[in-house]
Amino acid sequence: MLLLVLGALLLLFCSLDVWYFLRGVQVFFQAWFQPRIWDLLVEQTIDGMVLPHDLDYMGHMNNSRYLRECDFARFHHYMRNGLLMASRKLGARMVVGASTIRYRRSLAFCEAFEIRTKIVGWDEKAFYLEQRFVSKKDGFVSAIMLCRQNVVHCSPESIIEFVCKRKIECPEFPEDLKHWISFISASSQALRAESGLEEKNK
């Protein structure tokens, strides 16, 4: 019987990223039992630590793990400020449309950090967020990411109005975000031209 259980667990861990789902459950319950955040623009934090399955061959946190931790931090962020439930009630989906991360200093094994997430603005199609990995050792910003969260089947303004029961004015975009959005637009146009989509739409 023990061998069957061990075999089933081995098969499960080989077939699925079990740690991903366990982390998701942990983040869900953590956000569920924390107080509601009513200010959509306020920065929120979530704690983390570099564990053995996060490491690369150099003994540092793997680059891809930063992106995964950002996913969990955004999920936590949207749960606490009500955007997640509002989007579901409105039949909307929020998917990542673009992200850019800059690594400034590696996070070492067992190093504690926090991810600071905030919404910096939105347009008719997407929310724009900034996420920072801040080492608890000395407060150094180890990595910073910009994320475009596309809203499907709805609009950011509709979701915000549903949550706040009133219209909220979007803050002015910072300069680095403006440049990043311009890059995304230029890249999209180049890819459309490369695939011949622009000619077909004329």
From TrEMBL:
It comes from the Eukaryota. It holds the Pfam family 4HBT_2. Belongs to the THEM6 family. This is Protein THEM6.
